[in-house]
Protein backbone atom coordinates (compact mmCIF):
# COMPACT_ATOMS: atom_id res chain seq x y z
CA UNK A 1 0.00 0.00 0.00
CA UNK A 2 1.22 3.48 -0.89
CA UNK A 3 0.91 5.46 2.35
CA UNK A 4 0.89 8.75 0.48
CA UNK A 5 3.48 10.44 2.70
CA UNK A 6 6.60 10.36 0.54
CA UNK A 7 8.48 13.63 0.99
CA UNK A 8 6.91 14.41 4.36
CA UNK A 9 9.17 15.17 7.32
CA UNK A 10 8.91 13.38 10.66
CA UNK A 11 10.39 13.76 14.12
CA UNK A 12 10.70 10.37 15.81
CA UNK A 13 11.83 10.43 19.45
CA UNK A 14 13.89 7.72 21.18
CA UNK A 15 14.47 6.19 17.77
CA UNK A 16 17.97 4.72 17.84
CA UNK A 17 16.60 1.27 18.69
CA UNK A 18 13.51 -0.60 19.83
CA UNK A 19 10.00 0.56 18.99
CA UNK A 20 11.15 4.06 18.06
CA UNK A 21 13.53 2.66 15.47
CA UNK A 22 10.77 0.38 14.18
CA UNK A 23 8.61 3.46 13.59
CA UNK A 24 11.46 5.39 11.97
CA UNK A 25 12.27 2.51 9.65
CA UNK A 26 8.66 2.09 8.52
CA UNK A 27 8.37 5.82 7.82
CA UNK A 28 11.66 5.82 5.93
CA UNK A 29 10.40 2.92 3.83
CA UNK A 30 7.41 5.12 2.92
CA UNK A 31 9.77 7.87 1.73
CA UNK A 32 9.56 10.14 4.77
CA UNK A 33 12.56 12.30 5.68
CA UNK A 34 13.49 11.92 9.32
CA UNK A 35 14.74 13.75 12.37
CA UNK A 36 15.87 11.10 14.84
CA UNK A 37 16.53 11.61 18.51
CA UNK A 38 18.07 9.55 21.30
CA UNK A 39 20.44 10.12 24.18
CA UNK A 40 23.21 7.79 22.97
CA UNK A 41 25.05 9.38 20.06
CA UNK A 42 26.81 6.24 18.83
CA UNK A 43 23.71 4.08 18.41
CA UNK A 44 21.77 7.03 17.02
CA UNK A 45 24.34 7.83 14.33
CA UNK A 46 24.50 4.17 13.31
CA UNK A 47 20.72 4.02 12.94
CA UNK A 48 20.71 7.26 10.94
CA UNK A 49 23.42 5.94 8.60
CA UNK A 50 21.57 2.63 8.14
CA UNK A 51 18.31 4.36 7.22
CA UNK A 52 20.00 6.75 4.80
CA UNK A 53 21.78 3.91 3.05
CA UNK A 54 18.76 1.60 2.92
CA UNK A 55 15.97 4.01 2.00
CA UNK A 56 17.67 7.03 0.47
CA UNK A 57 15.83 9.53 2.66
CA UNK A 58 17.26 12.56 4.41
CA UNK A 59 18.02 11.77 8.06
CA UNK A 60 19.08 14.26 10.74
CA UNK A 61 20.29 12.81 14.04
CA UNK A 62 20.13 14.81 17.28
CA UNK A 63 21.67 13.25 20.38
CA UNK A 64 19.86 14.85 23.33
CA UNK A 65 17.65 14.02 26.30
CA UNK A 66 14.16 14.75 24.99
CA UNK A 67 12.78 14.78 28.55
CA UNK A 68 14.81 17.88 29.47
CA UNK A 69 13.99 21.44 28.41
CA UNK A 70 17.45 21.88 26.93
CA UNK A 71 17.22 18.61 25.01
CA UNK A 72 13.78 19.44 23.61
CA UNK A 73 14.96 22.87 22.50
CA UNK A 74 17.89 21.29 20.67
CA UNK A 75 15.70 18.70 18.96
CA UNK A 76 12.98 21.18 17.99
CA UNK A 77 15.53 23.58 16.53
CA UNK A 78 16.89 20.81 14.32
CA UNK A 79 13.44 19.48 13.43
CA UNK A 80 12.01 22.74 12.20
CA UNK A 81 8.76 22.35 10.27
CA UNK A 82 7.61 18.73 10.52
CA UNK A 83 4.48 17.00 9.27
CA UNK A 84 4.66 13.98 11.56
CA UNK A 85 5.55 13.63 15.25
CA UNK A 86 6.14 10.30 16.98
CA UNK A 87 6.69 10.74 20.71
CA UNK A 88 8.47 8.09 22.72
CA UNK A 89 10.49 7.86 25.92
CA UNK A 90 11.68 5.02 28.09
CA UNK A 91 9.35 3.95 30.86
CA UNK A 92 10.09 4.43 34.56
CA UNK A 93 11.36 1.50 36.62
CA UNK A 94 9.01 -1.10 38.11
CA UNK A 95 8.41 -1.40 41.83
CA UNK A 96 5.84 -1.34 44.63
CA UNK A 97 3.57 1.53 45.61
CA UNK A 98 5.59 1.91 48.79
CA UNK A 99 8.83 2.42 46.84
CA UNK A 100 7.87 5.72 45.18
CA UNK A 101 8.00 9.28 46.45
CA UNK A 102 7.03 12.63 44.98
CA UNK A 103 10.30 12.99 43.08
CA UNK A 104 9.76 9.61 41.40
CA UNK A 105 6.30 10.62 40.21
CA UNK A 106 7.50 14.00 38.95
CA UNK A 107 10.26 12.32 36.95
CA UNK A 108 7.77 9.87 35.42
CA UNK A 109 5.34 12.68 34.59
CA UNK A 110 8.11 14.73 32.98
CA UNK A 111 9.21 11.85 30.76
CA UNK A 112 5.96 10.15 29.85
CA UNK A 113 3.31 12.89 30.03
CA UNK A 114 4.74 16.41 30.01
CA UNK A 115 7.41 15.80 27.36
CA UNK A 116 4.93 14.57 24.71
CA UNK A 117 2.62 17.46 25.60
CA UNK A 118 5.47 19.97 25.22
CA UNK A 119 6.37 18.55 21.81
CA UNK A 120 2.77 18.70 20.64
CA UNK A 121 2.43 22.26 21.93
CA UNK A 122 5.47 23.26 19.89
CA UNK A 123 4.63 21.44 16.66
CA UNK A 124 0.83 21.38 16.35
CA UNK A 125 0.57 25.05 15.26
CA UNK A 126 2.72 24.36 12.21
CA UNK A 127 0.66 21.33 11.27
CA UNK A 128 -2.58 23.26 11.72
CA UNK A 129 -1.21 26.03 9.52
CA UNK A 130 -0.63 23.53 6.71
CA UNK A 131 -3.97 21.81 7.23
CA UNK A 132 -2.33 18.41 7.66
CA UNK A 133 -0.40 16.61 10.37
CA UNK A 134 -0.02 13.35 12.24
CA UNK A 135 0.94 12.72 15.86
CA UNK A 136 1.45 9.23 17.27
CA UNK A 137 2.30 8.81 20.94
CA UNK A 138 3.85 5.52 22.05
CA UNK A 139 2.30 4.80 25.44
CA UNK A 140 1.58 1.35 26.94
CA UNK A 141 -1.00 -1.39 27.27
CA UNK A 142 -1.12 -0.36 30.95
CA UNK A 143 -3.33 2.57 29.90
CA UNK A 144 -6.10 0.04 29.18
CA UNK A 145 -5.35 -2.36 32.03
CA UNK A 146 -2.91 -1.36 34.80
CA UNK A 147 0.20 -3.39 35.46
CA UNK A 148 0.65 -3.38 39.23
CA UNK A 149 4.44 -3.13 39.32
CA UNK A 150 4.44 -0.30 36.75
CA UNK A 151 2.51 2.21 38.84
CA UNK A 152 4.66 5.15 37.77
CA UNK A 153 4.05 4.36 34.11
CA UNK A 154 0.35 3.68 34.70
CA UNK A 155 -0.10 7.13 36.21
CA UNK A 156 1.95 9.19 33.78
CA UNK A 157 0.78 7.56 30.56
CA UNK A 158 -2.86 7.65 31.60
CA UNK A 159 -2.48 11.38 32.18
CA UNK A 160 -1.18 11.77 28.63
CA UNK A 161 -4.10 9.71 27.34
CA UNK A 162 -6.59 12.07 28.95
CA UNK A 163 -4.85 15.07 27.43
CA UNK A 164 -4.86 13.51 23.96
CA UNK A 165 -8.54 12.59 24.22
CA UNK A 166 -9.54 16.23 24.32
CA UNK A 167 -6.79 17.78 22.22
CA UNK A 168 -7.22 15.33 19.32
CA UNK A 169 -10.80 16.46 18.89
CA UNK A 170 -9.80 20.12 18.93
CA UNK A 171 -7.26 19.83 16.11
CA UNK A 172 -9.07 17.27 13.92
CA UNK A 173 -11.03 19.97 12.03
CA UNK A 174 -7.69 21.36 10.81
CA UNK A 175 -6.62 18.04 9.26
CA UNK A 176 -4.39 16.99 12.16
CA UNK A 177 -4.82 13.63 13.87
CA UNK A 178 -3.44 12.52 17.23
CA UNK A 179 -3.54 8.87 18.27
CA UNK A 180 -1.79 6.61 20.75
CA UNK A 181 -0.19 3.22 20.18
CA UNK A 182 -0.26 0.96 23.24
CA UNK A 183 2.44 -1.69 23.07
CA UNK A 184 2.47 -4.83 25.10
CA UNK A 185 5.66 -6.84 25.38
CA UNK A 186 7.89 -6.47 22.34
CA UNK A 187 11.34 -7.89 21.76
CA UNK A 188 13.23 -4.78 22.88
CA UNK A 189 15.66 -3.71 25.60
CA UNK A 190 12.67 -2.77 27.78
CA UNK A 191 11.40 -6.36 27.71
CA UNK A 192 14.89 -7.62 28.48
CA UNK A 193 15.08 -5.33 31.51
CA UNK A 194 11.68 -6.44 32.79
CA UNK A 195 12.63 -10.09 32.30
CA UNK A 196 15.88 -9.46 34.18
CA UNK A 197 13.84 -8.27 37.15
CA UNK A 198 11.87 -11.52 37.13
CA UNK A 199 15.11 -13.50 36.85
CA UNK A 200 16.56 -11.78 39.90
CA UNK A 201 13.37 -12.03 41.96
CA UNK A 202 12.66 -15.68 41.22
CA UNK A 203 16.09 -17.14 40.52
CA UNK A 204 15.29 -18.35 37.00
CA UNK A 205 17.11 -18.06 33.68
CA UNK A 206 16.46 -15.46 31.00
CA UNK A 207 14.95 -18.14 28.78
CA UNK A 208 12.59 -19.23 31.53
CA UNK A 209 11.54 -15.67 32.28
CA UNK A 210 10.84 -15.01 28.61
CA UNK A 211 8.95 -18.26 28.11
CA UNK A 212 6.84 -17.60 31.19
CA UNK A 213 5.88 -14.12 29.97
CA UNK A 214 5.21 -15.30 26.41
CA UNK A 215 2.86 -17.96 27.78
CA UNK A 216 0.62 -15.19 29.16
CA UNK A 217 0.17 -13.67 25.68
CA UNK A 218 -2.51 -15.24 23.44
CA UNK A 219 -0.17 -14.86 20.45
CA UNK A 220 2.41 -16.83 22.51
CA UNK A 221 5.27 -14.59 21.49
CA UNK A 222 6.74 -11.13 21.92
CA UNK A 223 5.91 -8.49 19.33
CA UNK A 224 8.49 -7.17 16.89
CA UNK A 225 9.63 -3.61 16.32
CA UNK A 226 8.92 -4.01 12.60
CA UNK A 227 5.23 -4.83 13.02
CA UNK A 228 4.85 -2.05 15.57
CA UNK A 229 6.49 0.37 13.15
CA UNK A 230 4.14 -0.67 10.36
CA UNK A 231 1.13 0.20 12.54
CA UNK A 232 2.68 3.57 13.35
CA UNK A 233 3.35 4.33 9.69
CA UNK A 234 -0.27 3.56 8.79
CA UNK A 235 -1.53 5.98 11.45
CA UNK A 236 0.76 8.59 9.88
CA UNK A 237 -0.55 7.91 6.38
CA UNK A 238 -3.10 9.71 4.24
CA UNK A 239 -5.43 6.75 4.80
CA UNK A 240 -5.78 7.38 8.55
CA UNK A 241 -7.36 10.82 8.57
CA UNK A 242 -10.60 9.51 10.10
CA UNK A 243 -8.83 7.86 13.04
CA UNK A 244 -8.92 10.49 15.78
CA UNK A 245 -8.03 10.27 19.47
CA UNK A 246 -7.79 6.48 19.54
CA UNK A 247 -5.79 4.13 21.77
CA UNK A 248 -4.71 1.16 19.70
CA UNK A 249 -3.40 -1.94 21.45
CA UNK A 250 -0.52 -3.92 19.97
CA UNK A 251 -0.15 -6.54 22.65
CA UNK A 252 -0.82 -9.93 21.05
CA UNK A 253 -4.18 -10.08 22.83
CA UNK A 254 -2.67 -9.82 26.30
CA UNK A 255 -5.17 -7.22 27.51
CA UNK A 256 -8.30 -9.19 28.34
CA UNK A 257 -11.07 -6.78 27.43
CA UNK A 258 -14.14 -6.83 25.22
CA UNK A 259 -13.87 -3.18 24.15
Protein traits:
seven-stranded parallel β-sheet; Rossmann fold; 47% helix; alpha/beta; SDR_fam; SDR; 8 helices; 259 residues; NAD(P)-bd_dom_sf
Concise account of the structure shown:
With 259 residues, the protein is of the alpha/beta class. It contains 8 helices and 7 strands.
Number of domains: 2
* CATH topology term of the largest domain: Rossmann fold
Helix-strand topology string: EHEHEHEHEHEHHHE
CATH-wise, what's the superfamily of the largest domain?
NAD(P)-binding Rossmann-like Domain
Overall 3D geometry? globular
Give the termini distance in whole angstroms: 28 Å
Helix content: 40-55%
Provide the low-confidence segments as ranges.
none
CATH architecture of the largest domain: 3-Layer(aba) Sandwich
With helices defined by DSSP (H or I, 4 residues minimum), what is the helix count? Answer: 8
Strand adjacency order, main sheet: 3-2-1-4-5-6-7
What is the CATH C-level name of the largest domain? Alpha Beta
Q: Outline the biggest β-sheet.
A: 7 strands, parallel
Structural class: alpha/beta
Cα radius of gyration in angstroms: 18 Å
- Please count the beta strands (DSSP E, at least 2 residues each): 7
Average pLDDT metric: 95
Strand fraction band? 5-15%
Give an account of the 3D structure.
This protein has 259 residues and is of the alpha/beta class. The protein folds into two domains: 9-184 and 224-249, Rossmann fold; 186-222, no CATH class. 47% of the residues lie in helices and 14% in strands. It has eight helices and seven strands. The chain has helices at 18-29, 41-55, 69-79, 102-130, 151-171, 189-202, 206-214, 225-235; strands spanning 9-12, 33-38, 59-63, 84-87, 133-138, 176-183, 247-250. A seven-stranded parallel β-sheet has the order 3-2-1-4-5-6-7, with helices on both faces. Helix 4 (102-130) links the parallel strand 4 and strand 5 (133-138). The protein is globular and about 55 Å long. The two termini are 28 Å apart.
Amino acid sequence: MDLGIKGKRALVCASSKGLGRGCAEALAAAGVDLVLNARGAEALEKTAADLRATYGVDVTAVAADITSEEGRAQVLAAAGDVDILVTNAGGPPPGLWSDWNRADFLKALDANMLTPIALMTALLPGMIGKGWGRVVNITSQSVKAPIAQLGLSNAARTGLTGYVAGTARQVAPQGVTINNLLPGIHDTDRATALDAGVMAAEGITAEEARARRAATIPARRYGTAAEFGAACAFLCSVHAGFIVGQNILLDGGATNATI
